[in-house]
Every structure is written in C-alpha cells, then in structure tokens.
Amino acid sequence: MNLKFKKALVLAPHTDDGEFGCGGTINKLIQEGCEVYYAAFSACEQSVLPEFPSDILIQEVKAATRVLGIKEQNLQLFNYKVRTFNYHRQEILENIIELRNRIQPELVVIPSLNDIHQDHFTIANEGVRAFKNSSILCYEMPWNNFSFTTTCFVRLDEAHIKIKVNALSEYKSQLHRPYANSNFIESLATIRGVQVGTKYAEVFEVIRWII
C-alpha cells in the first residue's frame, strides 16, 4: 500500500528525534511523492558534549534531513532550551498552529503521548491540540516509551533503512547514545517487520486517522 499523502509534517522535540522515530517512513513518503516538512524545537545546546560546538546539532539536522530527502526550505528550527518546553506550552502551541496554517498537512507525525521525556510529552500534547483535522501518528522511541501501542505499521524496504542509518550517522555529536548505532536501528526495524511479515518496518500509535 502506498502512502498517498500530499503533505506531511514531522514534529521533533529535539534535532534527531524525527529521524530516530520515523526516518524510514519519511524517506518512503518522499519517494511516493509526499512533500514532507520537519520542525525541530530545540538543538539541545545545553546538552552537547564539550568537545563539540554548542550549535553542532543545527548543522547535523540540516545534513541528516537532506539525506532523508527533505528539502532545505521544509526544515523549521526553533530555539527552545532542552527540558523547559512545559514552561512554554502556549508559545509552542502558537508555533505549531502557525505551521498548521502555513503547511496544512494531511498527516502529522509526533512523539507518543506516553513518552516520559517532558519535552516530548509537551510536543505530543500540543500537536494533538493543534491538529484536529489531520491524521495523527505517534512514532516509537523505545528508550522513552514504557508503553507503546503498535496500531500502525509502515512496511519498509532495505533501501529506506539504509537511508535512515545514513541520515543518523550525520549526528556525530550523538554517537555516545546507546541507541545511536546501526545495529540497534536495523534490529528494531527487523523486529517490527517480523510482526507484519516483511523484512523491515516502523511502527506508530494511531491517534486519529482520517479517510
């Protein structure tokens, strides 16, 4: 089944969240003719290791989204401090509503409403609040999801997973993360693929699906 969407918007609390959560699906959407937009709300300057420039993630997200096939003009970067989103809920909601009005996406992809990271939780909740007239899927981040309902699977080819791995390899500043390696990414995609009888897949929670 092809993903017949004209416009999709990925909301990433931090640079790299969208690539980890749905990088393969992003690439598949683009290959099938969808215009994909990506909004990241923090470059996490306060959390960057001291051996890197504090703004390194801005350059890395530009490179990573380019690998996925996202157009440069479709990347939106905001500058909220990491772990403070809950103090800026209204401002973030207004940012998301501006994106909604300008892009008018049919599909919106957000973190899980059960994500335990406070920034992820804020983006997920404000995203649901803003996009009442779009289909909404939540992407999987196992290290933050104590529970995750696997209600939507996107079958992926090996090429999609390779592009996802290549995109994430642009994040040199994040290689110390235990999940930031090709073995984990490919293994998770394999597990999700086995569940639906294909080699690779990404899984999502369905919040709203408009037919």
SSE arrangement, N to C: EHEHEHEHEEHHE
Number of strands: 7
Strand portion, in percent? 15-25%
CATH H-tier superfamily? LmbE-like
Strand order of the largest sheet: 3-2-1-4-5-7-6
Overall form: globular
Estimated helix fraction: 25-40%
The CATH topology name reads Rossmann fold
Biggest sheet architecture: 7 strands, mixed
Mean pLDDT: 97
The end-to-end span amounts to 14 Å
Q: Give the C-level CATH assignment.
A: Alpha Beta
CATH architecture: 3-Layer(aba) Sandwich
Structure overview:
The protein has 211 residues and is of the alpha/beta class. It has a single domain (7-208), classed as Rossmann fold. The protein is built from six helices and seven strands, in the order βαβαβαβαββααβ. The protein has helices spanning 17-31, 56-68, 89-103, 118-130, 158-168, 182-195, and strands spanning 7-12, 35-40, 75-77, 107-111, 135-139, 152-156, 200-208. A seven-stranded mixed β-sheet has the order 3-2-1-4-5-7-6, sandwiched between helices. Helix 4 (118-130) links the parallel strand 4 (107-111) and strand 5. It is globular and about 40 Å long. The mean pLDDT is 97.
